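Action item from last week, closing it out:
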Amino acid sequence: MKLLAGFLSAVMLLPIGCDLARAASLPQLEQPVLNAEVLVKVPEEGSAPADTEVESESDIASPGSDSPQAQLPVEEDTPLTVVTDPDSPYGLDGKKIFNPDPTRAVWLSALFPGLGQIYNRRYWKLPIIVAGYMGLGYGTSWNARMYQDYQQAYADVMDDDPDTKAYLDFFPPNVDESTLDHDWLARTFKSRKDYYRRNRDLCIICCVGLYLLAMLDAYVDASLSHFEVSDDISLDVAPSILVIPGQRRPTPALNWAFTF
């Protein structure tokens, strides 16, 4: 019985002994100890103050790096490159770039003179157009009234009705009709009515011309709103030799070029 109990105890203690022997054979892990010696440079007396320099003899390497010293990224002052989309309607300030449409400007000006100039943001042209129409409108109305008066006076002089005497309105009330020369009155009234009729028609033509001019100005202004004009305006003059066909000797000439 004692032998059996000893055998069983040996069998139970055998795995524990094997584990202890395996643990003793494994290398022990050493924890890294950072022994850092810090050297601080103190400026000597009389020298200019400088920034404190800290030097360390311990090199702490980041995991996975080949170099024993950790390299820090260096920031450089590099100019920024701004890339813009040429098809974008917005500028760098976030505002929408004004780009008028010539067709829309023409239709607005045709709808009402001056709307095309307002659409193109050329507000200073609006008073010119308004003043032009006001002047031409007044001229048309005044010449039309004068033409009607002289036309009626000429018709009364030429007819045989003694009751129609509109021509006497051009004379003072105390004028005797018998002292008037009807042939002279007929020539004068005819000349005056033709004169005022021509001026009336000319004012109407000018109104139509101003209407078309406003449309043309709106179209051209909208088309040239983004036309770039260089500041380099110069005139280059240089002598040259001009060879004219049919002549043996060359002719001296002057070559000039205008840059804009």
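Closing note: The chain is about 45% helix and 10% strand.
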